[in-house]
């Protein structure tokens, strides 16, 4: 990984001793690619992420293929991942939009799922073709069935800090929907800054309001996009509040096909670099992870947007020209 003992470990007070990284590159990252990535490449990507030490790797989404054609191969992909269990205690959650998606996931033996809600009405209409409350009613049956089958359930909540159509989203509005989502029986709540407009004070205010509403910090994860370069500073604010689950995408892949202003996710390598400097354990081998992102970038035909990947990857060697 880094050379000459860098980053130097300088712990800061009041931070978690360990952070669990919820890796979303294979789902949230690849779903935004213009061209579909071959199923075998996706499977190898996930295997390499597991070898790098990531233990929660969101594998795919069981949405209708017409909605997200890049993930239309979910049925073909998931059976290729049976060997991941040999790597260690790895969880491979998948996104399910409704009961039909849940049926497809259960048929393949999936043991961890996520539902994807919205804090705003406009995004709910565009992404789910429902109102916020209608989407919650749809998730109620999905979560109940999943919990009856002893599945772990994560609730994603998008547009928690801003919406490209509605603008600033009031904290109380987010808290209402977040609390309703958790009341359905979700084990974990992921707060999504879908268009990357959050700032640290806003993050702290929302986390505090959620605690006051009865949503405990250990049940909260954060999902930041780096549109305005705020993802790491927002993550640090969440860590200072006690959050110990952080979503990230290897190589900084991702966006949102339903919100064009949503750019890449927080890069996993950038997150790991910061956490290592703070002396926070992740279990991730940064060198292995960086190599994985470089490998995938070659398949995608473009360099990784992660600054850490670029810093740790030597530029291609070029033969010196000989002057006559």
UniProtKB/TrEMBL annotation:
E.C. number(s) listed in UniProt: 4.1.3.4
Record key words, sorted: Lyase, Metal-binding
Top enzyme category: lyase
Molecular functions (GO terms)? hydroxymethylglutaryl-CoA lyase activity
User: Which InterPro entries does its entry note?
Assistant: Aldolase_TIM, HMGL, PYR_CT
Q: Which residues form the Pyruvate carboxyltransferase domain?
A: 19-290
Is Metal-binding one of the keywords UniProt gives this record? yes
- Which Pfam families is this protein grouped with? HMGL-like
**SUPFAM superfamilies this protein is in?**
Aldolase (SSF51569)
Lineage: superkingdom: Bacteria
Q: Where is this region: Disordered?
A: 304-324
What the entry lists under NCBIfam families is as follows: PRK05692.1
Family designation: Belongs to the HMG-CoA lyase family.
PANTHER family, per this entry? Answer: HYDROXYMETHYLGLUTARYL-COA LYASE (PTHR42738)
The protein, known as = Hydroxymethylglutaryl-CoA lyase (EC)
> What is the native source organism of this protein?
Streptomyces globisporus
């Amino acid at each position: 990984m880094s050379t000459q003992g860098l980053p130097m470990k300088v712990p800061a007070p009041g931070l978690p001793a360990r952070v669990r990284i919820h890796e979303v590159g294979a789902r949230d990252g690849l779903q935004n690619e213009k061209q579909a990535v071959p199923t075998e490449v996706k499977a190898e990507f996930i295997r390499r992420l597991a070898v790098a030490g990531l233990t929660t790797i969101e594998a795919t989404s069981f949405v209708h293929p017409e909605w997200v054609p890049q993930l239309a191969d979910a049925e073909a992909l998931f059976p290729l991942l049976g060997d991941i269990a040999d790597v260690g205690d790895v969880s491979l959650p998948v996104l399910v939009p409704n009961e039909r998606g849940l049926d497809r996931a259960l048929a393949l033996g999936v043991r961890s799922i996520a539902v994807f809600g919205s804090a705003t009405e406009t995004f709910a209409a565009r992404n789910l073709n429902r109102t916020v409350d209608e989407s919650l009613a749809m998730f109620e049956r999905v979560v109940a069935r999943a919990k009856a089958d002893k599945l772990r359930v994560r609730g994603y909540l998008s547009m928690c800090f801003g919406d490209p159509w509605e603008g600033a989203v009031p904290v109380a509005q987010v808290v209402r929907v977040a609390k309703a989502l958790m009341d359905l029986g979700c084990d974990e709540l992921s707060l999504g800054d879908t268009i990357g407009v959050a700032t640290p004070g806003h993050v702290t205010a929302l986390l505090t309001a959620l605690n006051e509403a009865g949503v405990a910090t250990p049940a909260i994860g954060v999902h930041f996009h780096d549109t305005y370069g705020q993802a790491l500073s927002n993550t640090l604010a969440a860590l200072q509040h006690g959050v110990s689950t952080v979503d990230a995408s290897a190589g900084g892949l991702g966006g949102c096909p339903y919100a064009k202003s949503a750019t890449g996710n927080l890069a996993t390598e950038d997150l790991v670099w910061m956490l290592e400097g703070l002396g926070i354990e992740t279990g991730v081998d940064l060198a292995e992870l960086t190599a994985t992102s470089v490998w995938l970038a070659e398949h995608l035909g473009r360099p990784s947007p992660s600054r850490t990947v670029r810093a740790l990857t030597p530029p291609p060697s070029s033969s010196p020209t000989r002057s006559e």
